[in-house]
């Protein structure tokens, strides 16, 4: 946006507060029951690391422990998610790989080209891993072999067996032996079935036959593995504890109990991959039942560490899912007991927890429910007062996106959000209840209980009780409030809170407002920045005031570089304010989530989910974004594009049906769909007038051709 035009992006992206529960759900954490270190099985992703785009090493080591990656023929680094391509980049990260051989066949399902072809590939891949052997956790010769070996495999006369399953068991035996002939020590994982729901007799019979053959032929895998792609986190414990372990014992499997690998976990329901509140429920079950390794099933883009990174103009940046995984990775000490109180179908919240004797601290990660959740902690060894911090990592949603699947959302984030940091008193048995008010289903939460210490206010937080106040009421000793205080009584025409907000640069900022509205109706505050009106903050009812509950809403403001006077005054109804958290806005309107006319929604090279729009080649081709601004002003559009042809291409820019400008796209020499993917991404800027409220910004075919990644408003 032009500096002269002071504007605001409204809270179109605000998350509505959760429904009010009659009584909070309760997660019980018993610090007196400890079970050794966390396994952290969930800290793995399928194809999460790539050479192109170059997945950042620090973000990899900050959130991952293992990766499942494609095997390569010896010396072939052409495929960006292959082990050969990424091995040198993973050195020093501490992350290890499960090397998947089956992908060497090519095609989907895998295309069988005969035993000679397959055995040559196995030999070459096994020689290849010797160069980076210390990075290899295990090799997985097959992926989904219960149904994905196609192209005549079942009819191949050179593969003995009267049925598909018999042929696979023979192939397993021969493949295992070829690997061992080259590498006598590398761990081999299998069978890696896609479907192992052992309560179905046919699937349990298939696993029984596999293990029986492996025992008889001396080819028992070192690590047992299968996929868990059902909707319930309970699939794994059900299969493992009730069916697989008894079968392993019955058959006398050597090395039992074998380490368990869930190589693709997650349901693929559109609200799982990288989403904090959904992931943690799987982690909790993995920990309870002793799963050793897991890789998040991929339905989005390779190289993005399981949908926890986002493309931006400044490279790959973390979203809320990455911060949740980072929290999990950093947990230290002994795992402690956490009840899974909801036995109804895994619809409610769950948690993992540790107690660290060195720091005398308890850490709890929770999430997965909509509504109030009390975390009841018992049997802490301390007595008296403790420091209690509650933080959240927020999964953002764009209400104007055409594709509303949850995992397609998730703006990049600059960090986590602290809800409060205060002193609490333990009861005589070392217990305390930490309330998570209005938990959002897809957000993640962290509780840290540690020895007493002074609270720390994050640099992005502006406490209401420290603002310049006019005709309001300050409340102290508030157990739910950040800084142990909040401000109410903003009830009169002259009531105001003025915050001195610092901004490093002029631009758009996201403001999270922690508040309470105990009325039955939606309330508002009017907002001015440096004396200029920037709309209002809308506060849906929280069903109570700040002494009993709080919610959070989002507002976007334009701030100038330096100090800004952000002033909240009485609007409609009534609301209490705890704090503002102010950070640079990270939102982009993704082209593939916009309304696309006679064009092609495609993807970067090697990716799974679509993430760009090409084929904007016809007279009626267009991509239309829905954006919202609070007032009529001139805004600058930032358009991410590629133009792989010589010369400059253009798009006509229409706002609400009226042509307002032209976007120019100088040649980038390559396409986003090419081998270098988003390395060729460039920016085009155009200034256009936007009306107050919702606007339709349409990029329509002009001269030449261009692919579109996103649109952002400055």
From TrEMBL:
Keywords: Signal. Residues 460-583, 587-714 form the CBM6 domain. InterPro entries: CBM6, Galactose-bd-like_sf, GH. It comes from Paractinoplanes bogorensis. Residues 1-22 form the signal peptide. This is Carbohydrate-binding protein. The keyword Acetylation does not apply. Gene3D superfamilies: Galactose-binding domain-like (2.60.120.260), Glycosidases (3.20.20.80). Pfam families: CBM_35 (PF16990).
